[in-house]
Amino acid sequence: MKRYLIVIEETSTGYSAYSPDLPGCVSTGRTRELVEANMHEAIRFHLDGLREEAYEVPEPHSYSTYVEVPA
């Protein structure tokens, strides 16, 4: 099992998401829960496509953290 980071951003119509480790793999949804579920499917579809076309499947390497600064 591999864990890919996804970045979720709020938009004027809901949410959008992408994975920094999988260029071109994006999704949207009206709610955060929906965009997460859609992104899960998008990643599975993306990886299946890479394998089917005999491309290398990228290893996950991105991570996230928070930085605190004075407001």
How large is the radius of gyration? Answer: 14 Å
Class by helix and strand content? alpha+beta
Distance between the termini: 39 Å
Order of helices and strands: EEEH
Point out poorly predicted stretches: none
- Percentage of β-strand residues: 15-25%
The protein's oligomeric status is: single chain
In total, the number of strands is 3
Mean pLDDT: 97
Helix content: 25-40%
Global shape: flat
Keywords:
3 strands; three-stranded antiparallel beta sheet; single chain; 71 residues; alpha+beta
Q: What can you see in these coordinates?
A:
It is a single chain. The chain has a domain at 1-38. It is 30% helix and 20% strand. It has one helix and three strands. It has one helix spanning 32-52, and strands at residues 7-11, 14-18, 26-29. Strands 1-2-3 form a three-stranded antiparallel sheet, covered by helices on one side. Strand 2 and strand 3 form a beta hairpin. The mean pLDDT is 97.
List the helices and strands and how they pair.
Layout: E1 7-11, E2 14-18, E3 26-29, H1 32-52
Antiparallel strand pairs: 1-2, 2-3
Give a short summary of the structure.
The protein is of the alpha+beta class and 71 residues long. The chain contains one helix and three strands, in the order βββα.
